[in-house]
Amino acid sequence: MLASSPSENPAPSGLRGHSADSTPRDPEQAASQPPVSPILARGSEPIAAARGATLRARNWRAEALLRMFENVLEVGERPQDLIVYASLGKAARNWDEACAIAQALLALEENETLVLQSGAAIGVLPMHADAPLVVSAVNNTVGRWATPERFYERAGNGQTIWGGLTAAAWQYIGRQGVLQGTYELLRVIARRHLGGERPEDLRGRWLLTAGLGGMGSAQPISAKMLGLSSITVEVDPARAGRAFAAGAIDLLTGDRDWAFAELRRAQEEDRVIAIGLVGNAADVFSSCLPRGLTPDVVSDQTAAHDPRYGYVPVGYTIDEWVAARESDPESIERAARASITWQVEAMLELQSRGSIVFENGNNLRVQAIEHLGEADAPRINAIPGFMEAYLRPLFARGIGPFRWVCLSGSEKDLRVIDELASRLFPDRPEVARWIELARAHVPPQGLPARSCWLGHGERSRIAGAVNALVADGTLSAPVLFTRDHLDSAGMTHPRIGSERMRDGSDGVTDWPLLDAMLLAAGGADLVAVHSGGGGYSGWMQSAGVSVVADGSAGAARRITRTLDSDTGLGVLRHATAGYPEAIETLAAAGPAGTTGAAKATETARLAHEPDPTERSTNRA
């Protein structure tokens, strides 16, 4: 980090470093008043994002990012450790750096850019009014360094973090962030395999899955919204208890006989029920086989991507596991992979008995193959990944997990935007249906927010309309728009978002890097580039974006440029790979499309059509 102490060679004008004590508070004031941001209390008290229309920062763009930083900790799993989700996903490197970041945001001007490196505030550079306020790169390492062992070493030395997909980019909104994705996934499965997606089509059907953490707890909610009952296994009693208290599950037990009996009772009474079962997923999944139980759908959303910190092996209590992973981490990793393999073998057997089985993006299959050897890879990969099997047609059209956050903290503001979204896309009635379901079933977490799968042109349309509502005072404060990194252009992971691409580009990371460049060029308020850590090391690259609708003309321009280029590149990516849905989207946009992105997509399509009269000889 740039030194905050005086230097013999002063920095160029406008360049400044940041550390936790860069802007010290008056000691008497600090003793008598709470900190401007709860982050500055260093985890000694509960963290909640600021609400209302009062600015603490020097502009709404910086204020919005500070509130999102606070919000991911408010809804996170272990905010005292800066852990947001998935065992290791952190919002900042440590508390010193968290404070430095908060202080930098409080002082940031609109013509400056704060630079973050793996969760640390490096410095502030003079820029211009349409430049990003924050650029962030997290744990990006060259190929031979991108190993779990190297990551654990560097993280242990305080040199890096895993930022998850949305933790270090301050875009996580709680379980709702993956709720609609899970709902859409189960909806496609129901339509394709279970006879339909209406509740009457799904009567008596059920889902067996695992994981009730920040993202996993979206599974039983999504299933119930659709009309599927569920049993969700969770090894950590405390985490299961939090999910129950939050309303993610209807019943919670540690008795599997009772859980299966309650499921049968609900089926007989034509009720949909969500049951949480405290136990080990490998053990419970395997126990279905001798019982003759064949769930209709089977998956898993534990943190199996990290065999050291994310998956408790069979035979360990939580306390034993926590102690052993520090004293003998290699042994814990071997035991975890053995248990994961046991679970995967059970899933394969259930698949052979008729269950619809898929991996939900947590490298479950990778860990089993690591344990068994590459010779077993074809057999293990008979379990498909969710994206390749079910959701890619949406991504090919640029449709993915968009979201908005009401910085006012006002549920009234959220209702206004929900109603706007419900009527803005009449050609996609599923949007209005989702908004209706979300308002009825999504438990509130943190700042009022909504996740909504929107596509190319749709995102900029609603964000632009919201910007106008901020400008005319209909909304009481600005609104931040963002998305999951797992999006049409934003992610490469050959076992999740880009598995089995038609053109073999599963592991090509050009797309998220191009995405980040376009987002920065378009003036997004925050642009982040992440790579995997822990068990995801070497497996992924992603780009994230946040843009603030503050009611200004500048915001209107930034919204259109960034959101249209983001989805436009996603359509281009899939058209280049040969997906018909993307090619149709290009054709619909046409050469006279309303955005630059639409024109770019038509240009790309024409570039792939051979000229019948001449061969190009000047392509570089």
Automatic annotation (TrEMBL):
Residues in Urocanase N-terminal domain copies: 48-170
Compositional bias per record (Low complexity), positions renumbered to this chain: 590-604
Domain of life: Bacteria
UniProt biased composition (Basic and acidic residues): 605-620
Annotated region described as Disordered, given as residue ranges: 1-43, 590-620
Protein name according to UniProt: Urocanate hydratase
Sequence ranges assigned to domain Urocanase Rossmann-like in this UniProt record: 174-390
Native source organism of the sequence: Leucobacter edaphi
GO molecular function term, any single one: urocanate hydratase activity
UniProt feature, compositional bias: Polar residues: 1-10
Positions of the Urocanase C-terminal domain: 393-586
Gene Ontology BP term (one): L-histidine catabolic process
Keyword line: Lyase, NAD
Family annotation (SUPFAM superfamilies): Urocanase (SSF111326)
Cofactor dependence: NAD(+)
EC assignment: 4.2.1.49
